[in-house]
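Protein Record: Sequence and Backbone Structure Tokens
======================================================

Structure line: whole-number tokens from a learned vocabulary of local backbone shapes, matched to residues.

Purpose: to set a sequence beside its fold so the mapping can be learned.

___
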Amino acid sequence: MHLRHFILLVLSFAVADAQYSEEETGYWRHPTMTASGILTTDNAGSTLYRVAGLTAQPLVRSRGIGNGFVISPDGRRVGCKLIDDGGLQRPAVLDAATGILRPLTEPQERAGQPSFASDGTIAYTIGTDLIVERPTGTIRTSLGFYANRAPISPDGTAAAFNDGDDRIWIVDLADGRRTPVSPDGIGCFDPQWSPDGTRLLFTSLGSDGYVYERESSRLSALGEARSPSWMSDSRTVVFHRVEMRGPVPVNADLSDSSKQLKMVACPGCGTKLFLSGELAPLAETGCTKCGVSVMMPMRLRQFELRGVVGRGGMATVYRAFDQTLEREVAVS
């Protein structure tokens, strides 16, 4: 049922209320599963919708509400931010089942997106302060900077945020101690806690990924890591890499933090295939669609060898891409 709903979400834009008819020519963004079905937003990011049957029911509308909404670990609540016509902001929690919206504060000049811990704790920012609403009471911690996103760890013991120079920090919610975790002088964003809360993933403005381990204070660099996210084991990060030719993407890798899948084009039918990183360079395998031999690329100086053109008694000629000249060449 969920798969069918997702396909309908991609193919249709049936809106249940004519009030939003001006967005019927738009498209969907960020479809996300909740305990009550799929929640999504539109290309304007101005409305949150719940997919029900063949329609998308609008739940709440506010400027930018679809940008950065967060689902609680149990899938029952949605953290979002309301912005009124005067620019004032309020963090809010939406009940995914009933559609009831609960603002967390009065309108503020600067307020952040709410996040959730596993025990039901809600965290959000007001100005330079982090507000943590626990089942046992509310605490207020100064961050020293305004951060739109300051996600709380799943165990509710810490939160991560950016400072004014886009450096990532972790604040201990027991004593307020703040620790910088990203490389000095490198702007970073989008801190994401691992599901078990032991590690923090974030990305530099140059698209490099990093993982910080709380217990050992060790920082690991992933290299280029676009759109990274955690898998459920809290040890594996999934991301992709893109090879550009000027403004045009010409190749991509889908990777995790332990192995890499290389995307190659079949020379026979052009199908895009992902080859396992365990395949040796220059090793060949058959295309799953047409059966033509596909080779695992190998880097040789400025050349990426991508396929065999011909073999002779003295040498093998490869089809290659010259990274310097940005064109295909033959290499022997």
In short: The chain is about 5% helix and 50% strand. Residues 1-24 have pLDDT under 50 and may be disordered. The radius of gyration is 24 Å. Residues 48 and 60 are 6 Å apart (CA to CA).
